[in-house]
């Protein structure tokens, strides 16, 4: 009998190894974009719909993380709180919604948007990337090339999200996301994108810190609030960088 728990972990480790071997150039290119924003006093935002918002949220106000990541929460698609949950799948297909969200976000020319969409086929992430580009915002897209190139766009343009990104980070998951299969199951199961997208983005922040230090810049990194002096240390950074932080 198969050992699904081991097979899943082996599968995820394999995907992470592919990221390490294949995504280095894109990660460093994206890190330069983020570092440019930090050095030039610009702001950094992140967006994803429902489950794709979770990797963004994992960067925000995070001990050991870059304090400049501002989450954008689209009403009804920023989390899985709406009931029934199925309404979120319908809302992320709505043309025009991305502009409504961006029009009510303090994002401006020269800023950076980190955008997560595993399939990249729905209207909101596609228009979010397109509209951000039109506003002079650099777009770093996190997606699955295999998934996105093997499904049809749900947008009138026929485009996918990755086609509007300045840099694409590939999370390496297969079409449909699930890793495992069994002859006793009618479909594959156990998704991997949550692990690989999170790893990609934390690797990106690590590369950004490296790039900042190479330029002689010390980036603002949050100290854990649960260690002595953490709150005081962070307060000094918030005082210095408060004009670029909107989640406080």
Task: Give a structural overview.
This protein has 248 residues and is α/β, with parallel strands linked by helices. It has one domain: 3-Layer(aba) Sandwich (Rossmann fold). It has nine helices and seven strands, in the order ααβαβααβαβαβββαα. The protein has helices at 4-22, 24-39, 54-57, 86-91, 97-103, 123-134, 145-148, 193-214, 230-241, and strands spanning 44-48, 69-72, 112-116, 138-143, 167-170, 178-180, 189-191. Helix 6 (123-134) links the parallel strand 3 (112-116) and strand 4. Helix 1 (4-22) packs parallel to helix 8, helix 2 crosses helix 8 and helix 5 packs across helix 6. The longest helix is centred in the last third of the chain and has 22 residues, at 193-214. The model has no long low-confidence stretch (mean pLDDT 96).
